[in-house]
């Protein structure tokens, strides 16, 4: 099995909480800090990280002809689908319960016309223009698109195996040009696309993550000092890009630097971001991301009903409790739904022949 890159697992938690801060800040009713205002880029961080990690696990198998598409897709579905469906069902029940107790949660959640796309994880492919339901799940739909098309990414990566710097340069150029072109044509940044263009939004980030893994795989960053410098440089660039309002592609490329640097630190034996509790929080980050909006709805509307607090001007202490509370709720979801369902689905045994790109038998699963 490939090396367990614990710092990158921990990084997922910080990405999730960046998104949480972005969504929850309006409940305070005060001006949003610049770095929080860019919290939607936490999704881009997830997308780049996804390309890196999936390449780490599967790209060499693809190159060697031992990659099994059915096994790969089933494993990815087991990772994201149970929580997604559970929250869809939960939201329907929640809306019914809130209505019974006289809490109006709005009419933009239960959009029945988009339910087929929600169930098939195609809501970010332009097939559910009305959105609704659990809005963050659009990014899971985008991830599903990347999973389904992973062989296409792999076909492009393998010829660049020994030219990773060129691959990274091309991926970065593609990302920058696409962001500029999309913004000029659509009138809004690709990094703010969700339902209509979410599937496109993941493509440049996922490709960048794949190429960064190619570079990482060569051992180009050979010392902890250099790896620390790359990580710190990426983080500093990310903060500066948000504070000075630089184009989003600068921030995304900075996220790539953080991922590359942390991956190199792990490879060089560093223990940074590798403590068991940080890695555990990274493991529950998917549940954090998926449950944050339903939790925000229950918490803010609940206190509005109970003690007549304006959900758009919450006291700081109460707001902090809401932010912190998303973690234990996510832990419950992780242990009661995500992990058991994933383990159950992965019991399926793929005893099929895996063939390489030339069609020759290589290995049996």
UniProtKB/TrEMBL annotation:
- Per the record, what is one GO cellular component? membrane
* One GO molecular-function entry: acyltransferase activity, transferring groups other than amino-acyl groups
- Write down the superkingdom of origin: Bacteria
For this protein's source organism, the top of the classification is: Bacteria, Pseudomonadati, Pseudomonadota, Alphaproteobacteria, Caulobacterales
Task: List the protein's name.
Answer: Acyltransferase 3
Q: Which residues form the Acyltransferase domain?
A: 9-334
Q: Name one GO biological process term.
A: polysaccharide biosynthetic process
Transmembrane feature ranges: 12-35, 41-59, 80-105, 144-161, 168-188, 194-216, 225-243, 249-266, 278-297, 317-337
List UniProt keywords, sorted A-Z.
Acyltransferase, Membrane, Plasmid, Transferase, Transmembrane, Transmembrane helix
């Amino acid at each position: 099995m490939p090396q367990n890159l614990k710092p990158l697992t921990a990084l997922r938690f910080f990405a999730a909480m960046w998104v949480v801060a972005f969504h929850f800040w309006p409940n305070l009713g005060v001006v949003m800090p610049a770095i929080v205002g860019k919290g939607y880029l936490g999704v881009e961080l997830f997308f780049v990280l996804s390309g890196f990690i999936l390449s780490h696990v599967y790209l060499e198998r693809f190159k060697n002809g031992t990659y099994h598409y059915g096994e790969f897709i089933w494993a990815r579905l087991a990772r994201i689908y149970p929580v997604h469906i559970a929250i869809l069902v939960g939201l329907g029940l929640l809306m019914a319960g809130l209505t019974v107790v006289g809490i109006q949660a709005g009419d933009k959640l239960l959009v029945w016309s988009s339910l087929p796309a929600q169930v098939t994880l195609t809501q970010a492919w332009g097939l559910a223009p009305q959105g609704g339901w659990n809005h963050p799940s659009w990014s899971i739909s985008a991830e599903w698109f990347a999973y389904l098309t992973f062989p296409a990414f792999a076909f492009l990566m393998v010829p660049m195996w020994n030219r990773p710097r060129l691959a990274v340069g091309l991926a970065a150029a593609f990302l920058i040009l696409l962001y500029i072109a999309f913004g000029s044509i659509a009138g809004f940044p690709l990094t703010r696309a969700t339902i209509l263009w979410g599937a496109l939004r993941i493509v440049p980030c996922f490709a960048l993550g794949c190429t960064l893994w190619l570079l990482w795989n060569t051992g180009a960053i050979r010392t902890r000092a250099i790896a620390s410098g790359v990580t710190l440089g990426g983080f500093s660039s990310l903060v500066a890009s948000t504070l000075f309002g630089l184009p989003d592609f600068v921030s995304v490329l900075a996220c790539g630097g953080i991922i590359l640097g942390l991956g190199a630190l792990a490879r060089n034996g560093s223990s940074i971001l590798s403590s068991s509790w940080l890695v555990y929080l990274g493991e529950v980050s998917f549940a954090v991301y998926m449950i944050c909006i339903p939790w925000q709805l229950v918490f803010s509307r609940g206190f509005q009903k109970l003690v007549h607090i304006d959900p758009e001007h919450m006291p700081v202490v109460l707001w902090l409790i809401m932010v912190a509370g998303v973690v234990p709720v996510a832990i419950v979801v992780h242990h009661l739904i995500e992990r058991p369902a994933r383990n159950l689905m992965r019991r399926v045994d793929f005893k099929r022949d895996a063939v390489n790109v030339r069609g020759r038998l290589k290995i049996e699963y």
